[in-house]
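Hi R.,

Here's the input for the magnesium ion complex you asked about:
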Amino acid sequence: MPGEPPPIDAELADVIAVTRGFMPDDEGAALRRWGIEAFARVDSGPIIEVGSYCGRSTLWLADAARVARGHVVTVDHHRGSEEIQPGWEHHDPSVVDPRTGRMDTLPHLRRTLEAAGVEDVVTVVVGRSGMVGRLLGRRAAMVFIDGGHGDEEARVDAETWIPLVAPGGLLAIHDVHPNPADGGRPPYERIYRPALDSGEFTEIDAVGSLRVLERNA
Ligand code: SAH
Ligand code: MG
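And here is the predicted structure with magnesium ion in place:
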């Protein structure tokens, strides 16, 4: 566990509190702490977030970038995962584009980043995870995977992003449920397990459903 970082910017915390999303504060604080640590370990290379949604988790990472003079790249197609489409439990009708009836979280993300004043430390990339990973192809200080939770999407995320974590860099994964009773399994089975079982990563933190692994140097 790295040392205590300076407290989060108060204005930023106010924006987090009103931003739609799925990141509990204790897990967000852990992401921020490990983000700062990742920038200390790997001097070039951004934090890459897969699954921006409206920016709730992005802001924790943006504050890490601000503290450590790093940068965040956040990736999403902004059409919503399968499990947050209309009719599903976590669907939010206020992120549907009334013109088309499809989800579009990009305007929400843009407003979040603007309100928090972090547009200078966050680059927004709109696209499918697998395609963006192939285009980016660079070493990351930290990768945070919180994208699609279907079997195939989680598999593609693992294949795409795990290789991009620099030696000594960090791999954070959200919604990891070792016990099937706690929730869907793809992030556990397709991302977390293969990373650990490869022998290339060691687990260094667990907060709620967030897991943080380091790539062995
Ligand atoms: N990190 C956010 C929540 C992310 S929800 C928070 O904590 O608030 C998951 C997001 O992943 C959705 O916005 C969805 O559009 C995106 N997503 C799902 N599958 C994707 C894929 N294959 N490529 C890009 N984005 C994807
Ligand atoms: Mg999540």
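One thing worth noting: Residues 22, 146, 174-175 surround magnesium ion (ligand 2) (CB under 6 Å).

Cheers,
M.
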